[in-house]
From TrEMBL, chains A, B:
It comes from Agromyces larvae. Transmembrane segments: none annotated. This is 3-hydroxyacyl-CoA dehydrogenase. Pathway: Lipid metabolism; fatty acid beta-oxidation; Lipid metabolism; butanoate metabolism. It catalyses: a (3S)-3-hydroxyacyl-CoA + NAD(+) = a 3-oxoacyl-CoA + NADH + H(+). Gene3D superfamilies: N-(1-d-carboxylethyl)-l-norvaline Dehydrogenase, domain 2, NAD(P)-binding Rossmann-like Domain.
Amino acid sequence: MKHITVLGTGVLGSQIAYQTAYRGYDVTAYDVSDQALEAARERFAKLAATYRAEVDGAADGAADAAIGRLALTADLADAVADADLVIEAVPEQLELKREVYTKLGALAPSRTIFATNSSTLLPSDLVEFTGRPANFLALHFANQIWVHNTAEIMGTPATDPAVTRAVVEFAESIGMVPIELKKEKSGYVLNSLLVPLLNAAGDLLVEGIAEPEAVDAVWRIGTGAPMGPFQIFDVVGLTTAYHISAAGGPQQQAFAKLLKERYLDQGKLGVATGEGFYSYR
Amino acid sequence: MKHITVLGTGVLGSQIAYQTAYRGYDVTAYDVSDQALEAARERFAKLAATYRAEVDGAADGAADAAIGRLALTADLADAVADADLVIEAVPEQLELKREVYTKLGALAPSRTIFATNSSTLLPSDLVEFTGRPANFLALHFANQIWVHNTAEIMGTPATDPAVTRAVVEFAESIGMVPIELKKEKSGYVLNSLLVPLLNAAGDLLVEGIAEPEAVDAVWRIGTGAPMGPFQIFDVVGLTTAYHISAAGGPQQQAFAKLLKERYLDQGKLGVATGEGFYSYR
């Protein structure tokens, strides 16, 4: 694989594109408008600054060299004409993604592998729109890709095992730890583990068993983890936690109600707003 | 509180007694026979060696001084005659604990506070046998008390709040982080969080989604935790994991079956036997 195209330059898309370029690939970053591309340029510049500060070896010109390997375009046909791998990181809306794959299937060479970074959809939800079931799978990155360097790889039953292997190798080549899922699983591995832990923490609060500080202290001390579940909630953002909980069973809905009344309605949305379960001011 | 008595000198009981003595209290350690007390002496000597090696400041005579503050006895009446606090850490059998509290209630002064270290029982299961509902609660320590220094404190509706406060202060005075539970909860905070995480990991294995190494890597990288769930299973011990899973729902029972067939039947019981999900040889 030589030419990598990333569709969508939001939080995750820009990190994927930048990390891939940082590891030496020529990367085309696509977004829908010149305005979106201008925002992308700012994101890339910020990422370069972050890498210079946080990533070993990035300060010696490597962070800047990555910028030079990034081409930005709002022309989808141009973006994918010569792509070996297209990583799709457009907003998490099923209809939008289906439209994108329908266009993409017509524009990209048949050899091009498509990989979705979707967090909430399964590749099976999208495969029929790609025009290349054997060349399609999910390649899922975590936020702060330079720290949390997992790449969860999950095919459909139609994915060619050779394509899966090629994507595993690509993920390794950009510094990721590839995590191969043998079957499709909503939430991949990370959220399959994290959601039950966070639900259990929410239950303790709803039931009035213990306060967030106490719950987090037990988890940190008992397991050696750097953050307890309520600290994780604050990082994820309480709005996201609310939407996920509101869609759950009765216990989760009770937690959603608590979140809304005690936090969202007071503008306490987590780290991003300076206050959630904890104050960050 | 000046005189502390610990009933039971098994893994946890000996750690509680030693840590309490290490922090300057006179501690009486009770067990049922001279043979059990001989084993306790060995445990205390090993703990002193561990503290010298692992606890800051313990090497300068402090670890040995703790031994000097520990009195051992197989006479229950003597053990509790002058106790301000009795911490009960006898085996996790309901009938045995009820017998112990019935004897204890008759032997100890009425001012003496009783605290159970039980992991699996609620204080409400025991309170009626203590003869002192207001002076009884749970005080639950974690294994490797010198590292995992939480003390979960959980009363019944009859516990006097002043007694809870006194036990919180005692826990702090022996170097614990006191975690106050406002209501009774089976599994306290730690296991209320840990069990759902471990169940979710078991589900991923049962469903054939991903291998233990992959699951653990995602968890470590994604959350910064030092160990993934299958590493935790190996530390807890696969026999314990089997018994807990076998008593659960259909998914947990499927995991228990997998544990038995792939691990227990091969003598792979976790870290203690040198092999479990991982090899430690």
